[in-house]
Amino acid sequence: MGGPVRRGSRRGDILDAFTAMVAERGYDGTNFGDLAAGLGLSKGTIVHHFGTKEQLLTELHETYMRRRLAEVRVVWDALPGPAQRLAAFLHLGVRYQVVDRTATIAFQREVRRFAAAPGMETSRGLRDEYRQLVVSVLTEGERTGDFRPGDARLRTLQLFGSVHWMWTWFDPAGAEPVAAVAASYVDTYLGGLLADPSRAADLADPAGAVVAVVDEALAAGRAVAGLDADEDVGPS
To answer: Given this model, what pLDDT does residue 231 score?
Structure first.
């Protein structure tokens, strides 16, 4: 595997173009010929940097998950309570449909198909780490009495499933702003989970303390991607 992929580098430009093509066409519809033509490069240059299309997909998955984990570490440091941490997970999950939309679509539309593919071991480990953070916060919330008793594994599947297919219906330019969509997700999910459902409104508040931390977390993710603090990773 090559070194870290930085935005603005030759490898970074290739990975960005590949990500955009997978988001638009899917993995099967993406090929080195079109990728090279769009970048004004030879196919040999792409092979030199990445070797195979499978390796490009692997780096797409790994860089995507490293950004997500960097963001969660900010959440963990800033928000000690399980309800706040879980609300931040949801706010982040919805916001990815705007601030990192192209990579999110590329990742989500192919993640299940390639989850067990050879070469994806690091990506699986990163996804498992991310998933386990949610399981642990659900378990901790039940222990502290913040959450009603329930199956943490099932609740984790419900949480990820609720945001995984947003790319198929959410329009960033539509009538519903992303902050309102995120607030609705938090209110619905945590309203059913909290021992005191009245707490959900504060956790969902787009102007509240949780969202302020989410903004900090997204800045951390941009730093991992090699972006300026005021630059979003958006559609190509």
So the answer is: 44
